[in-house]
Design a protein that fits this description.
Radius of gyration: 15 Å
Shape: globular
Number of strands: 12
Largest sheet: 5 strands, antiparallel
Helix content: 10-25%
Strand content: over 45%
Protein name: WxcM-like domain-containing protein
Distance between the termini: 29 Å
Structural class: mainly beta
CATH architecture: Sandwich
Number of helices: 2
Strand order of the largest sheet: 1-9-6-11-4
């Protein structure tokens, strides 16, 4: 992908397919390195697990943080909403895929009971980077 395509693509959420190495009979490994495949340099990694299916997590946007969300086990429904109202739903049910979530995108996640979510983030945690009110999100980004 050329630089222009990468710049344009980073403005909205999209599905990443990680390189998959291996075979069915021996298993697989997927790799995410800061060698140009990832759309940003990873500064923080965190994971969530044992989340009840009835819980909707996320419900926020970021001013500057970019994220990649991966379901390393189970299924995660990632719903994104851009300030213009465009909504996308991504079903993550294989560890070889992830969703890129850029800044200024409201996002929520709902998990199967056995889901384990891994998140790669472009920044260290900073509460001031979060927009936790959807109306404020719409005001900031319109």
């Amino acid at each position: 992908m050329n630089t222009q395509d990468k710049t344009d693509k980073r403005r909205q959420p999209y599905l990443l397919v990680f390189p998959e190495i291996g075979a069915q009979e021996v298993g697989f490994i997927s790799v995410a390195e800061n060698t140009g495949f990832l759309p940003f340099e990873v500064k923080r990694v965190f994971w969530t697990y044992h989340t009840p299916e009835s819980i909707l997590r996320g419900r926020h946007a970021h001013y500057t943080t970019e994220q990649i969300i991966v379901a390393v086990h189970g299924r995660i429904l990632v719903t994104t909403e851009q300030a213009d109202g465009e909504v996308q739903v991504f079903v993550l049910d294989t560890p070889g895929q992830g969703v890129y979530v850029p800044p200024n995108v409201w996002h929520t996640m709902q998990y199967s009971g056995n889901a384990v979510q891994l998140v790669l983030a472009s920044t260290v945690f900073d509460e001031a980077d979060y927009i936790r009110d959807v109306e404020k999100f719409k005001q900031v980004w319109k």
